[in-house]
Amino acid sequence: MIKACDLKKSSIIDIDGTPHIIQRITSQSPTARGGTTIYKVRFRNVSTKQKVDQTYRGDDALQEASFDSKEVQYLYQDGDRYAFMDLENYEQFELFKEDIEECLPFLVEDMEGIIALISEGKVLTLRMPDTIELEIVECPPAMKGASATSRTKPATLSTGLIVQVPEYIESGETIKIDTKERKYLSRA
After folding, report:
1. Strand 131-138 relative to strand 152-157, pairing
2. Alpha-carbon distance 44 to 94, whole Å?
3. What is the end-to-end Cα distance of the chain in Å, rounded?
């Protein structure tokens, strides 16, 4: 059991016997004395992808889903199938595009550090590393005299993901990306 105040994004909770992954958590602290903090949580059903919104108090207990986690490596894409390899026993498995849609903007061939969450022999979801490095393939030209804290511009990365970067960044550079927020962090 886990308390609502200890929930984190991408935790997996058992709701009515089905695993749900947390997509978003917001908290509201009351201004009145004696009030308890309210947590609004958006879950996504791991198998059906259906969204569920729930509200909890900080001391409400939730059931964590039981699962195993294994480190996997992304190998290649074949149509709408994506091949991965378990790094412990070197077994390969495939996932369909619709099963891993939220991970697609970050997948690069031979990428390691991906965690597969497995329950009863079935891969529930993939957990990407917190930060990854990707190359910029297209962005407007750098401006001379642009400072690090000034305006931003859109940059298209090697995976097709578009993020806002500072004006001094140029095409061909490798940058660090926060996979949870889908934001630019720094140069690599």
Report:
1. antiparallel
2. 21
3. 39
DSSP class of residue 79 equals: T
Displacement of CA 185 from its chain's centroid (Å): 15
* Under 8 Å between Cβ of 154 and 106: no
Q: What is the pLDDT of residues 118-170, one digit of tens each?
A: 877 778 778 888 899 999 999 888 766 655 556 888 999 988 899 999 888 88
| Token reading at 66 | 């039981």
DSSP assignment of 122-153 equals EEEEEE--SEEEEEEEE-PPPPTT--TTS-EE
pLDDT in tens, 42-97: 888 877 778 889 888 888 888 887 778 889 999 998 989 999 999 888 889 898 88
**What angle (nearest 5°) sits at the alpha carbon of residue 34, between those of residues 30 and 38?**
40
Domains plus CATH for the chain?
2-62 (2.30.30.30), 68-127 (2.40.50.140), 131-187 (2.40.50.140)
pTM of the prediction? 0.69
